[in-house]
Amino acid sequence: MWSWQRSWLGGTLFASLMFLSSFLGAIFILTPMLPLMLIRPKWYRAVVDQLIGWWETFPVALLELVYGVRVRITGDKIPQGERTLIIMNHRSRLDWMFLWSCLLRRGQLSKEKIILKTSLKNIPGPGWAMQVGCFLFIKRRWDEDEKIIKRMLNYLISIRHETQLLLFPEGTDLTEYTRKRSNDYAKEYNLPKYNYVLHPRTTGFVYIVEKLRKAKQLDSIHDITVGYPAGVLQNEMDLFAGRFPREVHFHIRRHPLQTLPNTRGQLELWCTTRWAEKELQLKEFYQRKRFKDLNLVDGRKSGNHFRKEQVKAILWLSIFFWGNFVVVMLYLMANHFFLLKMTSIIAVFYIVEGLLFGGVEDMEIKLHNAIWGKLPWK
């Protein structure tokens, strides 16, 4: 049934649609919204967050409706509108894309901010959209990353953004190479060896929790475990080859703020304990091909924001909108030199502003500081 979808043809088509929709969306949908940051940052953030969230439904729609990827969500039900830190194991380089299926069903897709490596911000199209989305781009050197995270969190706190911040404490995806490095580290420090997760790095986790808690901008931590019982899309090459997983399972555990420990050392232990639990949980998962908890979150009576029928309608509408958007914009650009010229000018703008400001997200913060004064949180 899924022959061409799970081939180089299907994978290349998916990647092409993702690139074209994000590139054209950044140029013709997001860029016209940039002047709003001069008027009211909170309004600007609300508008572009909704637009980016709408685009993020497109890969979800293609994966589920066209490529046949089944998503199963178990565990705790998440109250709508929570300000939270999402922590998740990093099984593949594209876990964040599959997580959008989970966030969509909770009605929280537009609030998500992902912590990513800084090289991704310069990719034409997707990188520009992530800059506009105020994603956090880190360099994996804490002396620099602390300043980046502090600046971004200060800004989001100052405009009272209901952030859902996604952090992969492991720092990288699980491969044979990274597993060996993690277990070498475990041997050196007399820690247990893991097969299904990597030992987490707790410095950034602790800093973010303490920062958000102090600012009263954290309601809970959502601890999500992802498992792939029938194939895993490990990296971009697998994506192009069409090696899409047949199923993706998410298990959610919600930890309210009041249940979290108060000291730095206790928070570090709390995080490492969660990862020890994930190792055991995933070991059982890959034996059973599902998580033990049978409390399905993605159900008609789950109490979530969207029901199954609503989700399916949103996904089909997304395919209709973005599919037509790509076709129409390519046609107009091919037949109207003005649009092609505008595209080139905007592309140059993103390159120049990256050199001058470091990215649209940095420009947003600098303009906010210059117009509305110093941030209230230090």
From TrEMBL:
GO CC field: endomembrane system; endoplasmic reticulum
Q: For this UniProt entry, which segments traverse the membrane? A: 12-36, 313-332, 338-358
Q: Any idea which GO molecular function terms this record carries? A: acyltransferase activity
Which parts of the sequence belong to the Phospholipid/glycerol acyltransferase domain? 84-206
Which keywords label this protein? Acyltransferase, Lipid metabolism, Membrane, Phospholipid metabolism, Transferase, Transmembrane, Transmembrane helix
What span is annotated as the signal peptide, if there is one? none
- Would you kindly state one Gene Ontology biological process term found in this protein's UniProt entry? phosphatidylinositol acyl-chain remodeling
Assigned protein family: Belongs to the 1-acyl-sn-glycerol-3-phosphate acyltransferase family.
Name of this chain's protein = Lysocardiolipin acyltransferase 1-like
| Encoding gene per record | LOC118415330
